[in-house]
Amino acid sequence: GKTASTKPAITQELGVTPPLGFWDPLDLAAKGTAEDFERRRATDLKHGRVAMAAFLGFCVQSLDAGKGAHSTVPYRGYVENVSPQEQWDNIPVIGKLQILTFVGMLESYGEIPGEVPHYTQPGGIPGYYPPLVGKRPELLFNLYDPFDFFVDDDAESKERGLNVELNNGRAAQLAIMAMLTASKGLIVPPLDAIEGFPKYSGDVMVPFEGQLHVAMPELAAWTEQTLAR
């Protein structure tokens, strides 16, 4: 196994998939220890999982079932038939803070070693998440294999599954960026050719636009007028 003092054979690692193979033109993967590599591998998996969730979320929230009328509105200020990004904009700031706090709690808990060592240590499993069931009465499922689909898988099957997840996550990262780009009206084949593809006039890089300003709008306007003289 790997140790923190040795560099992994990165050209043979999971995620090196034909036909592209090992692609690292700047030789970034070779820098650092094996522990550094495992940390980057875990980050790669996390980004891929978030991107897969974002991709599916964008698709669902673009359908009538997601953006249409609801017998019970999902949140205060819900507006029908708007783009996924506009749906996020319409969520009250307290709702957004709750979402981000929950994500931060999950991220922190994921760094706690569970039944296996931390992913940066020998014997650690990249992408593994400690069990949640039993920690609190309302927690009925684990985030890692909540329905015990992989309990009987052998090591080879788990390795193949992790490789598939890595590649799917990378594809999802490209896909969600393409969707966000196309929603700004830019040419992104084939998305720009889809009739009625959701468009967004706001800034996806400012998730709290208009909600978390240091100064009140009136004070900001006064400051701008004063400094513009």
Account of the 3D structure:
The protein is 43% helix and 0% strand. It is mainly α. It has six helices and no strands. α1 (34-61) packs across α5 (155-183). The chain is globular and about 60 Å long.
Q: What kind of assembly state do the chains in view correspond to?
A: single chain
Number of DSSP-assigned strands: 0
Stretches where pLDDT is under 50 for at least 5 consecutive residues are 1-7
Class from helix and strand fractions? mainly alpha
| N-to-C series of helices and strands | HHHHHH
Fraction in helix: 40-55%
Q: Which terms would index this structure?
A:
229 residues; mainly alpha; disordered N terminus
Write the layout of secondary structure elements.
Elements: H1 34-61, H2 64-67, H3 84-90, H4 93-110, H5 155-183, H6 217-228
Q: TL;DR?
A:
This protein is mainly α and about 230 residues long.
